Amino acid sequence: MQVVEANGARIPALGLGTWELRDRTCARIVEQALRLGYRHIDTAQVYENEREIGEGIRASRVRRDDIFVTTKVWTTHFAPNDLERSAKDSLVKLRLSEVDLLLLHWPNAHVPMAETLGALAHAKTLGIARHIGVSNFTVALLDEAVALCKEPLVCNQVEYHPYLDQSKVREACHRLGLAMVAYSPVAKGKVKTDETLIAIGKAHGKSATQVCLRWLVQQNVVAIPRTSKIERLSENIEIFDFVLSDAEMARISALGRAAVRLTDFGFAPKWD
Length: 272
Known about the structure:
- The protein is an alpha/beta fold.
- It has one domain: NADP-dependent oxidoreductase domain (TIM Barrel, Alpha-Beta Barrel), CATH 3.20.20.
- The chain contains 10 helices and 10 strands.
- The chain has helices at residues 23-36, 50-60, 80-94, 113-125, 139-148, 167-176, 195-204, 208-217, 230-237, 246-253, and strands at residues 3-6, 9-12, 16-17, 40-42, 68-73, 99-104, 129-135, 153-159, 179-183, 222-223.
- The chain has an 8-stranded parallel beta sheet with strand order 3-4-5-6-7-8-9-10, covered by helices on one side.
């Protein structure tokens, strides 16, 4: 599996997103993904499935050291003592001694960023997480976070797919030495019927979804598609045996003019 390296972290370029996966389905999908060769599992406190993620990891029989596990602290736990307590609670649910990556799920303007990042850095020094990072941060917030954090941040996880131009955030990540991780990488399934992606896929014997994921990893972006279907797991991981040309990459990037953002909330920052 290809990896993206940033500040000492080696993040598998393709992972399994688990938002909205619940109960037995969640555990079964995680187990199957790991057996198929996935080595990166992404969850969050607010997904309320950390316990099932842990069950799936144990059922897979894959060595813990071979799996990269990410979870995210929800915004209501950003006060320093609360962040540490909630992160330890995540470990209890996952039944892990540490996570590979602990992220701040969204920026929270109501708690001083210096305090939250201080607590996040402390979680790393305590051994709760091997690496730390952020999610849904704008360019300005990224610059502020990197300047304030005593420990190196390794990534910014953001919505990214062909219909959303994220070049400003991607350039900021590159400038700051951070990896970029793409959630909703197939635009919640919208790419499946895209004529451009279907046409490019035909030239490679691949699906539109596989072309989309390949477009991301060829930019050195980590993609974490979510699925509840076993057959999709197999399809999504088969993207490392073909290469898109520069012209094909440019055709897909041009779709970003649509500026389609699928995840937005009232508490979201002012996007770039």
